[in-house]
C-alpha cells in the first residue's frame, strides 16, 4: 500500500511522512530528495538551469517509478498533484492524503523555513503572501481530490494513521 502525502510547500509532508512511516513500519520516500540525488543538484539550482517544465517531467517519472506493491509513505512535492495526470495516478495506486493548512500559517512557515525553495527566496513578505494565496487557490482544485483531507495544524502520526485506516481495506 502506498500512502501519498500531498499539500502546499511547508505543510509538513516530509516531517509527517517520516513519522507516519515509522509508526506504520513502512518505507519512506521523499520525491524531492530522490530528485536531488538522481540529478545531483538542489532543486532551486535545477529550476534556474533547466526550468520548471523539465523538473515536472522528471518528477512525473520518479513518481511512476515507485513500486506500488510495497508499503511506502511518499512525501510528494507541493506541485506534484498539479501536473500531468499525477493526481489521478496517485488516486489509482494508493491513498492520497491532503495535509491542509491556512495560507497565513504556510507563509509564516515558509519565511522561517531553512529549506531553500525556488520562487520563495527572492520574494518580500507581502509579495509572498499574495503569491501563496493565488497559488493555493489554483492548486486546491487538485489537492481537494485526495481521498482524505486532514487539518494539519495539530497533527500527530497516530492521528494520521487512524484517519487513513478505513482505506486500508479499499482496493485500488
Ligand atoms: C514545489 C515544491 C517543492 C519542490 C519544488 C517545487 C512547488 O516541494 O517539489 O521546489 O511547486 O510547490 P515541497 O512542497 O516539499 O517544498
Question: Which strand order do you get reading across the main beta sheet?
Answer: 2-3-1-4-5
Unreliable runs: none
Q: How can the largest sheet be summarized?
A: 5 strands, parallel
Order of helices and strands: EHEHHEHEHHEH
User: Could you tell me which ligands this complex binds, including any ions or cofactors?
Assistant: shikimate-3-phosphate
Range of strand content? 5-15%
Given the helix and strand composition, which structural class is it?
alpha/beta
Mean pLDDT: 91
**Total strand segments:** 5
Question: Approximately how much helix is present in the residues?
Answer: 40-55%
- Put simply, the count of helices is 7
Distance between the termini: 10 Å
What is the gyration radius calculated from CA atoms?
A: 15 Å
Name the overall outline. globular
Structure in a nutshell:
By secondary structure, the chain is an alpha/beta fold. It is built from seven helices and five strands; from the N terminus they run E-H-E-H-H-E-H-E-H-H-E-H. The radius of gyration is 15 Å and the shape is globular.
Amino acid at each position: 500500500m502506498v500512502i501519498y502525502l500531498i499539500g502546499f510547500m511547508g505543510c509538513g509532508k516530509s516531517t509527517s511522512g517520516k513519522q507516519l512511516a515509522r509508526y506504520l513500519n513502512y518505507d519512506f520516500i521523499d520525491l524531492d530528495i530522490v530528485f536531488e540525488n538522481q540529478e545531483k543538484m538542489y532543486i532551486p539550482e535545477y529550476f534556474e538551469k533547466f526550468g520548471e517544465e523539465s523538473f515536472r517531467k522528471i518528477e512525473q517519472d520518479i513518481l511512476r517509478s515507485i513500486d506500488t506493491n510495497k508499503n511506502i509513505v511518499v512525501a510528494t512535492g507541493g506541485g506534484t498533484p498539479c501536473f500531468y495526470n499525477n493526481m489521478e495516478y496517485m488516486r489509482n495506486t494508493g491513498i492520497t492524503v491532503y495535509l491542509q493548512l491556512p495560507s497565513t500559517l504556510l507563509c509564516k512557515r515558509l519565511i522561517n523555513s531553512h529549506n531553500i525553495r525556488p520562487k520563495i527566496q527572492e520574494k518580500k513578505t507581502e509579495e509572498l503572501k499574495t503569491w501563496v494565496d493565488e497559488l493555493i487557490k489554483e492548486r486546491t482544485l487538485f489537492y481537494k481530490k485526495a481521498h482524505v483531507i486532514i487539518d494539519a495544524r495539530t497533527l500527530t502520526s497516530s492521528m494520521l494513521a487512524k484517519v487513513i485506516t478505513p482505506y486500508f481495506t479499499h482496493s485500488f
